[in-house]
Amino acid sequence: MTEDLGLKTEECIRCTWAGSDPLYVKYHDEEWGKPVYNDKTLFEFLILEGAQAGLSWITILKRRENYRKAFADFDVEKVAAFDGKDIERLMSDAGIIRNRLKVSGAITNAKLFIKIQQEFGSFTNYIWGFLPDGKPILNHIEKMSDVPARTELSDKISKDMKKRGFKFFGTTICYAHMQATGMVNDHLINCCAR
User: Catalytic positions, please?
Assistant: First the structure.
């Protein structure tokens, strides 16, 4: 079996990116591509995807619990209220990616997330409103090389969010966010987690 067509482990064929790391396999099987309609979880992935920019996802996944502690259990109201002292606290936290622009961006994004909640009733209403009929896009991926890094839809969402002032949410990060939150399902057609 070629890697591009899926990785077979324990009689289960998985997308090759899941590898054999138990944390990655659990994330692949239980979260990635599963629709999320909860603002708190959508905010969590917004922070995590922004932190991931330029890094591998496993780097962030291994620090997820540290992010949960550092960013007030992903409570958007608390993160939006972070100030200079919080930024310095986060910059000295070895459990997260200590990039000042990413840390400041997460706080800015929290404030903008709240504005969207106020405008649309929830962030869920806003982000899922970009999808046709508000339903997940189920792609028919036969090999991992067929998975796009961005789409016209991720371009559109990213452009709107950038216009609103969001940081670290270009089209590639946007598409990764869409995959992580199940707005799009890019599991291989023969993947056990599809």
Answer: 27, 49, 57
